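Page 47, continued from p. 46.
Same chain as before, 307 aa.
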Amino acid sequence: MYWIKVVNESCKANQSGCNSRFFCYSIRVPDPSLLILIPAYNEECRIEPVLRDYAQFFGKNYSGKFQIVVVLNGCTDNTLGVVQKVAAEFPVIRADEFKQPIGKGGALIEGLKLASQGELIGYVDADGATPPASLLELVKQIGNADCVVGSRWLASSVLHQQQTTLRRFFSRGFHFIVEVLFLMRIKDTQCPCKLMRREAVEKIHSNLLIADLAFDVNLLVSLKRAGFRVHEVPIEWTDKGGSKVTSSLFRSSLTMFLSVVRIRLIYSPFYKFLRPLRPLEGWIYTKLRAPQPLSSSQVQSPKSKAD
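Result:
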């Protein structure tokens, strides 16, 4: 909840505070409208309690308008049915379904096309690793930034259950590569809990081309290069079992490495000379069973409020 203090001129001159009972008061201002995106791929066994927790928590603790959009990415189970069941109880929840697999990054790119529906746009994973209180904390931290990034690697972060040793090894190796390539000074680019202002999303949306798990790097690089302020804060986190990344860790890591190299090349003057190699690039993604990167012609920026 935001508060605005209104004072008269005599109050402004009083350094010790305002003593007027008529001209000094606070106005309660609702929180900014919030759009929460949750990408989902075959999450019928995990997503129901997550949706209930988020809907109930923000219903009790958030004064502004909010909605939760689950972006279904080629689900072959009953994730849609579960979402629809919870949505019947909580009208703030709805589903946006894509029949064909488009990748987690692809799902978020599609979800961010809805940016005009919220002043703030955040996203979290469907497994409940990030509690709703952590996303609300990002909202509180947005004042001096355009994007707030939750981080599992800051000293004051609270990790109830850490990732496995193997995943931490791959995570830190990936972070090292990203830092060498982009020098972003962000300790945890991959934490799936981020919050952005609508204006920032609308400005950089056409630059979001990575449909796999390296999407977060694509997002942060685009924000930084566009001059937006990115702030990293500690987060509460519980690693959840059944991760689809863990089950194909080497293949996912190789795909992400390929994608961050691609992002670096896109921002280099040499990328235009690599066009003859793009069929080879597509072949590699296919062999890795990874979602293909998008071209700028495939991505339409979300409409601004004025459109």
